[in-house]
Amino acid sequence: MSARMTSRRRTLTAVAGATAALLLAAGCTSNEPPEEEGSGATEAAAPVEANDEPGEKVVIGFSAPAADHGWMGAITKAAVDTAGQYEDVELRQAEATNDVNMQISHIEQFINEGVDAIVLLPFDGAALTDVATQAMEAGIPVINVDREFSSPFAARATILGDNYGMGVSAGTYICEQLGDNPDAIVAEIQGIESLPLTQDRSQGFEDALSDCGLDVDRRVAADFTIQGGETATSNLLQAEPKIDAIWNHDDDQGVGVMAAIENADRDEFFMVGGAGSLDVMEEIKAGDSVLKATVVYPSTQAADGIKLARLIVQDKNMGDLVSPGVPRTTTLFAPVVTSENVDQFMDMGFRS
């Protein structure tokens, strides 16, 4: 392994450690009031679960796109389950929809009802920006999930998966496996090519590979569907007689990707998935397919949004942070799941 690659791995390890520390801080909260001046800064910290103690009632409006694939279904389920854990939370769930105008009308209804907070995963962030801004102007904090609004005034807090980081994680893993082989052929199966999130993932992947002297030799675009994944992969395998590694952006479309691989009877490469479906984790654990890893894109983002909305409305702090209040932006880590650590992530997996 080259000195450059070793340096890269050390840097990523440091970043991962710092990110994990931040996420731990986000998850460990305190509901204890601030200390009186002069009461002593060295006293024991409040119990980390104190913020889970019941407080004033919080009515949260929740809206997300239709669950037309496993990851989106898991997003909604986790949000609903998390809200149900709090006796002081009333969740008003809008009908899931991919119709932008309908989602706008749902947010307008939440505004008219005077909910305390809104957790919103917009089908289209730009299209929902105006109505989210209206909610903020009405004094209703909006928690923006996954797909960003086009204005900083549209949300009190934003929770994001790390799309660029997904690419970095996938590329770094492939570098670890192939970094000593500069002639290795690496392929990439995107989701929808035109989406910024896809472009971010591809850029992170390209950047990580270049750090160990590898390139993306062949890139094809699917559409986050099973059929699209199968078609794109069939075209890829026909065009490339030999491949050493594949990164597939999305485990849901990966069902089609795997079907194409099996139909072509190809197994000379290994594959890295994306998102973290339970199906893929099970294949990784079994160790009997080309799937050797996947990169997590957390399906807990809206659930985290529910928790943050509750903290904001109840005017609570994130106790393990020195700064008061809830951070404006939280970007979740994108860890690589392999056979060595898969048991740690199985509970987070979703069905494709």
UniProtKB/TrEMBL annotation:
<feature type="domain" description="Periplasmic binding protein">
    <location>
        <begin position="60"/>
        <end position="316"/>
    </location>
</feature>
<dbReference type="Pfam" id="PF13407">
    <property type="entry name" value="Peripla_BP_4"/>
</dbReference>
<dbReference type="InterPro" id="IPR006311">
    <property type="entry name" value="TAT_signal"/>
</dbReference>
<feature type="signal peptide">
    <location>
        <begin position="1"/>
        <end position="25"/>
    </location>
</feature>
<feature type="region of interest" description="Disordered">
    <location>
        <begin position="29"/>
        <end position="52"/>
    </location>
</feature>
<dbReference type="InterPro" id="IPR028082">
    <property type="entry name" value="Peripla_BP_I"/>
</dbReference>
<protein>
    <submittedName>
        <fullName>Substrate-binding domain-containing protein</fullName>
    </submittedName>
</protein>
<keyword id="KW-0732">Signal</keyword>
<dbReference type="InterPro" id="IPR025997">
    <property type="entry name" value="SBP_2_dom"/>
</dbReference>
<comment type="similarity">
    <text>Belongs to the bacterial solute-binding protein 2 family.</text>
</comment>
